[in-house]
Amino acid sequence: SRAIKTNQDLLPETPWTHIFYNDFWGTLLTHSGSHKSYRPLCTLSFRLNHAVGGMDPWGYHLVNVLLHAAVTGLFTNFSRILFGDGYWTLIAGLLFASHPIHTEAVAGIVGRADIGACLFFLLSLMCYVKHCSTRGSSLSTWGWILGAGLCAGCSMLWKEQGVTVLAISAVYDIFVFHRLKMRQIIPALYKRKNLTLFFSIGLLTSWGTALLGIRLYWMGNKPPSFSNSDNPAADSDSFLTRTLTFFYLPTKNLWLLLCPDTLSFDWSMDAVPLLKAVSDWRNLHTVAFYAGLLLLAYFSLKGSSNERECNGRTVMNGKQNANGHSCHSEMENKTLEVKSSFASKEENGIKKHEMQKLQLPSTENIVILSLSLLIVPFVPATNLFFYVGFVIAERVLYVPSMGFCLLVTVGVRALYVKAQKRFLKNLVFCSTAALIVFYGLKTVVRNGDWQNEEMLYRSGIKVNPAKAWGNLGNVLKSQSKISEAESAYRNALYYRSNMADMLYNLGLLLQENSRFSEALHYYKLAIGSRPTLASAYLNTGIILMNQGKTEEARRTFLKCSEIPDENLKDPHAHKSSVTSCLYNLGKLFHEQGHYEDALTVYKEAIQKMPRQFAPQSLYNMMGEAYMRMSRLPEAERWYVESLRSKSDHIPAHLTYGKLLALTGRKSEAEKYFVKAIQLDPTKGNCYMHYGKFKID
């Protein structure tokens, strides 16, 4: 809702340049309550969607699906560089296309940020691959590295993690294109022929540092702040709890990639219980995860000196195997007549970069790149450098899943090569096909959960019952299923009794059903849980005012008007509630005959009023106050302002008609009375005022 429905940056009357100063939710980036999620290109795409189709969700979903299709195509094309033409590239592409973890990013509109970032991530990486292949032989190489830098910047402007493509490009250059081992990197610094390599790495480092510096400066040099329910581990006072939980979370994320059986729209609050002791059995998962990761990285970086697999065929010391297959793709074998080993090619005068273009990366090279692609884009979500506003977010795994798909593919290929018997080879191949089918079926099932809000929230009850029941209550309430909605809210509070939003929502439901004493009870609990919840003060004041407790209502409205909007997640909604409080306080003074006090409060409301606030009632009451004080010119001005802000505002038609009649402009006054009746022929109040006008 905040990213699209109530985001003022999507509206045509808002200057489009505001997108570059506000966060993803439309809040000024330097505001203390800003989420600091700076994604202007994603917001701009939402604005274009809004300009074409308004709030029709079909167009938004279409763009997401098309972007995912484009990303899948680019990823498959990149896989060809690693696996060549053939089944392995197809397998990598199908794994990515069908993976269920992508459902949230594609089916959820706000997930477009991750898809767009991934699109430019791959474009940047492909540009850098072109730069590597043309380096030293063509001037176009500098155009390619410029394109890589620009696409990396665009990827970061879609979502923050996009900047990590620069690190992946460096890994590709060192370990895949140049095929260096860890022990060879330091000696390579002293070789003159590697100057271009380290110059390229230097450019990547400099550009990445510049992008991060600008990003930090643009968001006010301050990290975002989040509520304890968003990321409970970050709010824990125990260093041990924070450490164990933060080390465990990557393990949980990898499991979601490997076995996406249980998925949820929200993993905040207690969806992943904190690890508070070393004796927690989940620490075994953590140890196994990091041990496996380190071993895989070690053996890949160490490399094999005798043997390597190449696209499903074994190559010994760079020579062909017994079947006569060399380490080239089929297309390259057709276009180039390769009749000797790589050493003899160099002797014949073929340039080194051309040789590298012929030779596909080894398994070790691909594993290093895959691990980097899996880990590095995920690092911003690990709480390593700053706390994030979630425990787990499936959409965040969209980019890292590329590394996972490559890792699975290269692992399957290695098993296929090692298998000696045809039966075992077929078993490996069929098992991989079955995995793709199962992933695809799970994606179809999970996509069904995203068909509507009710199904989505019901699917999340087993993972995050407090959040799921609370959101489900909102949906049921919108469907006029009042008793079911009340039950859902109470279920949410059963799991987490201090949720201010749920306490407020339950109070609002009770208020709308005339259960005022119960509503007041829950509003007070909501205020106790979150003293800055202005909407709870507003509705408390309204109930007290209607019950004739004017002094209590006055104090409540005044207290609400004094709450600052600092460090609030949604300052726009807060300002709207504060403005409404001041409006109702002004009405209270007006009903008591304190018109000067009412005008003072109304003027304060106008000063604090946010852009999205509908001001017609406030302007009309300003006119009413001036009317009671016999200051007719000022009254007329505010009646006109009310009608200008909302031309079908019936109270303003009636009050302005009364003023016109009072000043002798009866024919003009009659038009406003008639217009009010036309706007709502069922409203008896309009006929009453028109009848009085006729009698007079």
Automatic annotation (TrEMBL):
Annotated ranges, domain DUF1736 = 221-293
Q: Which UniProt keywords apply?
A: Endoplasmic reticulum, Membrane, Repeat, TPR repeat, Transferase, Transmembrane, Transmembrane helix
Q: Highest taxon of the source?
A: Eukaryota
Q: Which InterPro entries match?
A: TMTC_DUF1736 (IPR013618), TMTC_O-mannosyltransferase (IPR052384), TPR-like_helical_dom_sf (IPR011990), TPR_rpt (IPR019734)
**What residue range is the signal peptide?**
none
- Spell out the subcellular localization from the entry: Endoplasmic reticulum; Membrane
In the UniProt record, the gene name given for this protein reads: Tmtc2
What's the protein's topology in the membrane?
Multi-pass membrane protein
Q: What are the ranges of the TPR repeats?
A: 466-499, 500-533, 534-567, 579-612, 650-683
Q: In which pathway does it act?
A: Protein modification; protein glycosylation
Task: List cellular component terms (GO).
Answer: endoplasmic reticulum membrane
Q: What is its main location?
A: endoplasmic reticulum
Q: What is its EC number?
A: 2.4.1.109
MF (Gene Ontology): dolichyl-phosphate-mannose-protein mannosyltransferase activity
Query: Protein name, please?
Result: dolichyl-phosphate-mannose--protein mannosyltransferase
Recorded family membership: Belongs to the TMTC family.
SUPFAM superfamilies listed in its UniProt record:
TPR-like
Instruction: Provide the transmembrane region boundaries.
Output: 109-129, 141-158, 164-182, 194-218, 284-301, 366-390, 396-416, 423-441
